[in-house]
UniProtKB/TrEMBL annotation:
GO terms for molecular function: metal ion binding. This is Insulinase family protein. It comes from the Bacteria. Residues 46-183 form the Peptidase M16 N-terminal domain. It comes from Pseudoduganella guangdongensis. Keywords: Signal. Pfam families: Peptidase_M16, Peptidase_M16_C.
Length: 462
C-alpha cells in the first residue's frame, strides 16, 4: 500500500488523529455473485457525487508462461477500443466529461478502472463494460502500444533502480511464475501478436474469474439493475482457470547476483529473502516493525546510511506481498567506491533487530506513526475501490482492515521479538548488486556465492 502522507503529528493533532484512527472501520459494502459467476462489490458513499468502478481479474504475469509481458500488454490493450466503439470514441467520451479510464496487468491481477461523476454513469458505465468484455485489440493501436512498451523496456535498463526489483524476484523465485517480469522483456514483448492477446483475454477475462467493484454516489437498486444488464450476459466458456503454485523463495545459501552496468557510477542494491503473503495474520504488526527498520524517514536504515554516514540519499526496507508468498528487502544505492561500506553498514543496522531489539519507546513511536498513516489511505472512493479489488485478488478478509488499529495497539516488545525471529530473514541473505562489475565484483564473494549478469542482456535471468 502506498503511503499518501508522511507528516508526523504532535500534540493535540496527534491525539485527534489517534482518536479518529481508533474508530476506523471499513465502510459497509454489499457482496453478491451474479448467476454467471461474477463477484460484485458495491459500497455507497454519498459525500461527493463521484463513482469509482474497478473490474479485477485474477490473472497477471504469473499466467504469462513463456510469453513474458502478455498479461501486461493485454491489460493495457483492453483500453484500445471495443467491438462497438473505437479508441477515439471512448477516449473522447471519458475526456470530455473529465473522467478517468485506466488499465493494466501486474503480477497476479489485471485491472480496468474508471472514475467519473455520478451524472455520467449512464454514458460511461456501458463503455466500461464493453472494454472489459469485448475489447477489439485493434491491430494498429496494439502495434503502437507494443512499440511504446518495448522502447520503455530498453530505457529502463539505463536506470538500475527501475529494474533491480525484477532481478531480485528472478533470483529469489528462480524459474517459478512469481519470477516473471510483469512488463516482459524486449524479446518476449516484441514477439507478442494480436492473437496472443486475444487468447489471453478469452481465457482469463471471464465472469467467474473476476470481480466488479463499484464505490461512490449511487442508488443501490438502480446500480444493481445496471450491473445485471451490462454484465449479466458475460459468458464463461469451459472450466474456470485454477490458481497453481506460483513458487516460493529459494534461499538455502547466501547468494549474490552482480549485474554489470559498465558505465555505472553508483551501486544499486537489494538485500533480503523470503517474506509473507498478503493475507498473513502477521501482516499488520510487521508493518509496524518494518517502520522501525526502514519504513519511514527516521528509520534505523535511513538514519545510518543517509543521515549519520552520508553514504546514500535514502535507504528503506519493505515486505512485498503476493497472494501465496512474498519477499523482504533492504534497498538503497551508493557511490561506487563506497559500495562495501554501505553494504556492511546496512547489514550491521539490520542486525540490530536481533542484537538490540526494539524497545518500548521506539515501538510506541512506530505504532503512532502507522496509525496516523492508516485512515488517509482509504478516504476516497477510488482508494476504497482499489482496496476492495486487492482484497478480492489476494483473499484478504475485511477483518484485517477492521482490526488494524487493535492489532497495532496490541503489539508489545515481547511480541515484536517473536515476530522478528519468525519473519525477518537472518541467515542465507540474498543480494542483488547493479553497478560496475569490474569494481564491485571484487567484494561480492564476501557476501555469498556470486553469479554474474550483464544488464544489456535480454531479460533478468542469468
Amino acid at each position: 500500500m502506498k503511503k499518501l502522507f508522511s507528516i508526523a503529528l504532535t500534540g493535540a493533532a496527534a491525539v485527534a488523529a489517534s482518536a479518529n484512527a481508533a474508530e476506523f472501520k471499513l465502510p459497509a459494502f454489499e457482496t453478491t455473485k451474479l448467476p454467471n459467476g461474477l463477484t460484485v462489490y458495491m459500497m455507497e458513499r454519498h459525500d461527493v457525487p463521484l463513482v469509482a468502478v474497478r473490474a479485477v481479474v485474477k490473472a497477471g504475469a504469473v499466467n504469462d508462461g513463456a510469453q513474458a509481458g502478455l498479461a501486461n500488454l493485454t491489460g493495457d490493450g483492453v483500453l484500445l477500443g471495443s467491438a462497438k466503439h473505437n479508441k477515439a470514441h471512448i477516449d473522447q467520451a471519458f475526456d470530455f466529461r473529465g473522467a478517468v479510464l485506466a488499465g493494466g496487468g501486474s503480477v497476479e491481477q489485471s485491472t480496468v478502472a474508471a472514475n467519473f461523476a455520478r451524472k455520467d454513469t449512464d454514458a460511461l458505465l456501458p463503455l466500461f463494460a464493453e472494454l472489459v468484455q469485448e475489447p477489439s485489440f485493434d491491430a494498429t493501436e496494439l502495434d503502437k502500444l507494443r512499440a511504446r512498451k518495448v522502447n520503455g523496456l530498453k530505457q529502463s535498463k539505463e536506470s538500475p533502480r527501475q529494474v533491480v526489483g525484477n532481478y531480485y524476484r528472478a533470483m529469489l523465485f528462480g524459474n517459478a511464475a512469481y519470477a516473471n517480469p510483469p512488463a516482459g522483456t524486449v524479446n518476449s514483448l516484441s514477439a507478442l501478436k494480436q492473437d496472443d492477446v486475444k487468447a489471453f483475454h478469452q481465457r482469463y477475462f471471464r465472469p467467474d474469474n473476476a470481480a466488479l467493484i463499484v464505490v461512490g454516489d449511487f442508488d443501490p437498486a438502480e446500480m444493481r439493475k445496471k450491473v445485471e444488464t451490462l454484465f449479466g450476459q458475460w459468458k464463461a466458456d469451459g472450466a474456470a482457470p485454477q490458481r497453481a503454485n506460483y513458487g516460493k523463495v529459494q534461499a538455502d545459501k547466501p547468494r549474490v547476483w552482480v549485474v554489470n552496468k559498465s558505465d555505472a557510477i553508483e551501486t544499486t542494491f537489494l538485500i533480503g529473502g523470503p517474506g509473507i503473503a498478503r493475507n498473513d495474520p502477521d501482516y499488520v504488526p510487521l508493518q509496524v516493525l518494518n517502520t522501525v527498520l526502514g519504513g519511514r524517514f527516521t528509520s534505523w536504515l535511513n538514519d545510518e546510511l543517509r543521515v549519520n554516514s552520508g553514504l546514500t540519499y535514502g535507504a528503506n526496507s519493505s515486505f512485498a506481498t503476493l497472494s501465496q508468498a512474498g519477499t523482504f528487502s533492504i534497498s538503497s544505492f551508493t557511490a561506487l567506491p563506497k559500495t562495501e561500506a554501505a553494504l556492511d553498514l546496512a547489514l550491521k543496522t539490520y542486525d540490530r533487530l536481533w542484537s538490540k531489539g526494539i524497545d518500548k519507546a521506539t515501538l510506541d513511536s512506530a505504532k503512532a506513526y502507522v496509525k496516523g498513516q492508516f485512515p488517509p489511505r482509504y478516504e476516497t472512493s477510488e482508494q476504497l475501490a482499489t482496496l476492495l479489488g486487492d482484497m478480492y485478488a489476494n483473499d484478504v478478509g475485511r477483518s484485517q482492515i477492521d482490526n488494524f488499529m487493535k492489532d497495532v495497539d496490541s503489539l508489545t516488545p515481547e511480541r515484536a521479538k517473536q515476530l522478528v525471529e519468525k519473519h525477518f530473514p537472518r541467515k542465507n541473505l540474498q543480494m542483488v548488486l547493479v553497478g560496475k562489475a569490474a569494481e564491485i565484483g571484487k567484494i561480492a564473494s564476501k557476501y555469498g556465492e556470486v553469479t554474474n549478469l550483464e544488464i544489456t542482456a535480454d531479460g533478468f535471468q542469468p
